[in-house]
Fold this sequence. Notes:
It contains five helices and no strands. It is mainly alpha-helical and 126 residues long. It has one domain (30-125). α2 (37-58) runs parallel beside α5 and α4 runs antiparallel to α5 (102-125).
Amino acid sequence: MKRVCVRFFLTRSPSHTPPHPLYFQNAFSEYDFNCPLNKSVGMLRCIVLLYNRCLKAVTGSIEGGRAAGDAKTVTWNIIKATCGKAINSVTDMKFKDPRSSDSDFATYFSAVADEVNASFDELADQ
């Protein structure tokens, strides 16, 4: 089967192959035509921070000033309700203009990371 598919595409000119819809996905958006390395790294840091804080909250590491045996149970619904604005900030990072300067990226992503940390600190205090 694989050999037939390869042979099909090798024997046809590019003008005869049907375009796949994923080839044109996000091809003309203002924020996704290019993703500089510092934007990718900043987004990844914020995503990993959110993941680690969620994992820590769900696994019961949040003690909130209580005794270790009296730690409260945190579910995804509680995280979503309490930290919803921070989660939206993390998902909206992709809309940051890729033409921004390095200092703009650093400031923006540190603000998002601070927002994530603040929302999870608020969750721990409840």
